[in-house]
Design a protein that fits this description.
The complex is a heterodimer of chains A (about 240) and B (about 70). Chain A is mainly alpha-helical. Chain A is built from eleven helices and two strands; from the N terminus they run αααββαααααααα. In chain A, a hairpin with a 2-residue loop joins strand 1 and strand 2. The chains are: A mainly alpha (about 240), B mainly alpha (about 70).
Chain lengths: ~240, ~70
C-alpha cells in the first residue's frame, strides 16, 4: 500500500491532464479505495472488542473482501453514477482518474490489486513489501524503509518542482473555475481559506512523509532496505 | 538556442517574494506538524486532523493576527 502518494498524485495529474478536471473528486477518487477498509485492515479497539480482518491482505485487496475497490471497474461504476445520477461529467471523470491512479499505484507492492475485477488475478510489481497485516506502525516503518517511500518521494520532489500548481494564481485560474463546488463553498469560506483547503492534501502528504521517515529511522532506528521487494526485515504478504 | 524569459505569473520560472513568504509560512507550519507527529504518531494518521491543522495555522490564526493589528 502507499502512504503519501495518494495525497500527492492528484496535483501532478491535475497539472498534466489536458481535459477539464475537478480537484475535489480527483482527490476523493485517489483516497476512495482505502476509505472504508483501512481501519479494519489495521484493526481497532472498540470497548472490549478488537475488530480486525482475519486476513488483512485478503480483505483489503482480495476477493472475498473489498479488493474490488482497487479495480478499474469500480472507478468506472462510480464515474457513471456521478455522471448520470449526480449529473456531473467532470466529477465523474475526475473521480475515475483519481481512483485509477490509486489502483495502479498499489500494484507496486507484493499483494497488488485486482485491476481487472471480476477477474481476481492480482497484478503486482513486487517493488515494496505489503505489511498491512503487521499493524499500522510496523507497516509505516516498512513502507518508509523501502521503495514505497521512495516512490512517494518522487511525487514530493516533483510537486516541489511544480510549485506553480500550489500558487493562489493557479487556484484562481484553473482549480476554482473548473468546479462549482468551490464557488458554493465560497459562500461560507473566504478565498484564503479555500486556497488553504486546496493545498491541504499536499501539506498532509509531504509533512507526514517527512514525519514518518524521521520517526522510522531517527527515533525507532529501522534500517533502510531499498532492494526490490524490501524491506526484507518485515514479512511481506502475497496474494 | 533561445533562453526562456523569467516571466511572471502562472508560467514563471521563479517564485515571487510574496509566494516565498507564503511558502515560508507553510514550511513553519509543517515543521511544527512534523514535530508533533514524531512525538505523537497518532497525530499523523488522520487527513481531517491535518486539514483542521492547516486551516488553523495558515489561514485562521494569520487572519486573526492581521485583524488585530
Amino acid at each position: 500500500m502507499s502512504w503519501a502518494a495518494h495525497d500527492l498524485e492528484p496535483y501532478a495529474i491535475q497539472k498534466h491532464t489536458r481535459i477539464k478536471l475537478a480537484f475535489v473528486p480527483l482527490l476523493i477518487g485517489s483516497y476512495s479505495p482505502d476509505m472504508m477498509s483501512k481501519w479494519f485492515v489495521y484493526g481497532i479497539h472498540l470497548g472490549p472488542w478488537d475488530l480486525k480482518a482475519r486476513d488483512p491482505a485478503q480483505f483489503h485487496r482480495g476477493w472475498p473482501g473489498v479488493g474490488f475497490t482497487h479495480s478499474l471497474i469500480f472507478g468506472v461504476v462510480v464515474c457513471l453514477l456521478l455522471w448520470k445520477v449526480v449529473g456531473s461529467k467532470t466529477w465523474g471523470v475526475s473521480f475515475l482518474i483519481g481512483q485509477w491512479a490509486h489502483a495502479l499505484t498499489d500494484t507496486g507492492d507484493t499483494v497488488g490489486t485486482m485491476l481487472l475485477f471480476p477477474w481476481t488475478q492480482h497484478f503486482h510489481l513486487d517493488a515494496w513489501a505489503y505489511a498491512g497485516q503487521a499493524g499500522r506502525f510496523t507497516d509505516a516503518a516498512a513502507y518508509f524503509s523501502g521503495l514505497g517511500g521512495m516512490w512517494d518521494a518522487v511525487f514530493l520532489v516533483y510537486g516541489l518542482f511544480s510549485w506553480r500548481v500550489l500558487t493562489a494564481r493557479y487556484f484562481d485560474e484553473v482549480i476554482y473555475p473548473a468546479d462549482r463546488f468551490w464557488s458554493f463553498l465560497n459562500r461560507l469560506v473566504p478565498r484564503a481559506g479555500l486556497i488553504a483547503l486546496y493545498r491541504a492534501a499536499f501539506f498532509y502528504g509531504s509533512s507526514r512523509w517527512v514525519a514518518w521517515t524521521v520517526w522510522a529511522h531517527l527515533v525507532k532506528g529501522y534500517p533502510y532496505d531499498l532492494s526490490w521487494g524490501g524491506p526484507h526485515w518485515v514479512q511481506a504478504a502475497h496474494p | 538556442m533561445r533562453l526562456r524569459p523569467l516571466i511572471r505569473g502562472r508560467d514563471a520560472l521563479l517564485p515571487t517574494r510574496r509566494q516565498l513568504a507564503v511558502f515560508g509560512g507553510y514550511l513553519a507550519a509543517a515543521a511544527v506538524y512534523v514535530g508533533i507527529g514524531v512525538y505523537e504518531v497518532d497525530f499523523l494518521l488522520s487527513y481531517w486532523v491535518a486539514v483542521a491543522y492547516v486551516l488553523v495555522t495558515v489561514w485562521i490564526v494569520p487572519s486573526v493576527v492581521r485583524r488585530l493589528r
